[in-house]
Design goal:
It is a single chain. This protein has 166 residues and is of the alpha/beta class. The chain folds into two domains: 2-55, Helicase, Ruva Protein, domain 3 (Orthogonal Bundle); 61-162, 3-Layer(aba) Sandwich (Rossmann fold), CATH 3.40.50. It has helices at residues 5-11, 16-32, 40-57, 78-85, 113-122, 132-135, 146-155, and strands spanning 2-3, 37-38, 61-67, 97-104, 127-130, 159-162. It has a four-stranded parallel β-sheet with strand order 4-3-5-6. The chain has a two-stranded parallel ribbon with strand order 1-2. Helix 4 (78-85) links the parallel strand 3 and strand 4 (97-104). The longest helix is centred in the N-terminal third of the chain and has 18 residues, at 40-57. It is elongated, with a radius of gyration of 24 Å. It binds iron/sulfur cluster.
C-alpha cells in the first residue's frame, strides 16, 4: 500500500506506540474502498472516527448538590445551576457531566442527607457538591453541621466537592 506524502506526514503525529496499529487500520479501510493509495483524507477520516469513539466512551459524571434547607426558603438555586451550566468555579473541571439530584439537607442537623445519598447511589452518583450557601459566612451563618454532613457522604463512598458557585 502506498502513502501520499501528506498522509505519511500526518500519521507521524500519532504516538509511536499506536502508530503501527493505526496504519494497519487505515490501510484496511482504504483497501475496502478498492484503493491502493492512502490519502490525507483517509487519515483524517480515521482520526475523526477514533475521536468520536473516544467521546462515546467518555463517562458522564453524575453530580448531585445538597444545599441548606433554611436558605432554600429564599433561594431557588439559580447560582448553583448557572455555575454548572457555564462550567464555572467548582464545576470548571468537568467534561461530560449532568446534575442528577438537587436537594436540601432536610433541616438541622442534615437529617435527610443520609437517606437521599442512598437513593442517589442507586442512580450511580459520582460526586456530591456541598452548596456554597452551606460553606459561606455572609448574610447567614455557615452550616454548623457541615463536618458531619461531609463525613456522612464520604462514608458511603461518594466523593465530596466543597462548594458550587463561590
Ligand atoms: S444542617 Fe446546615 S445546611 Fe442544613 S439547614 Fe442546618 S444549617 Fe442549613
Amino acid at each position: 500500500m502506498e502513502w501520499e506524502p501528506d498522509a505519511a506526514k500526518e500519521i507521524e503525529k500519532i504516538p509511536e506506540h499506536v502508530r503501527k496499529m493505526a496504519k494497519m487500520g487505515i490501510e484496511t479501510s482504504v483497501e475496502k474502498k478498492g484503493k491502493n493509495i492512502v490519502t490525507i483524507e483517509d487519515v483524517k477520516e480515521a482520526s475523526q472516527r477514533f475521536n468520536s469513539l473516544m467521546k462515546k466512551d467518555e463517562k458522564t459524571t453524575k453530580i448531585a448538590i445538597v444545599r441548606c434547607d433554611i436558605v432554600s426558603e429564599t433561594c431557588p438555586g439559580m447560582a448553583c445551576f448557572k455555575a454548572f451550566n457555564k462550567r464555572k468555579v467548582h464545576f470548571s473541571d468537568y467534561g461530560e457531566a449532568e446534575i442528577i439530584g438537587f436537594f436540601t439537607c432536610g433541616g438541622c442537623p442534615g437529617r435527610r442527607v443520609f437517606r437521599l445519598v442512598d437513593s442517589l447511589i442507586k442512580h450511580d452518583v459520582d460526586v456530591v457538591h456541598l452548596s456554597s450557601c452551606m460553606l459561606m459566612e455572609g448574610g447567614y451563618p455557615k452550616c454548623p453541621h457541615i463536618d458531619e454532613i461531609r463525613q456522612m457522604i464520604l462514608k458511603k463512598g461518594v466523593k465530596v466537592v466543597e462548594g458550587t458557585h463561590h
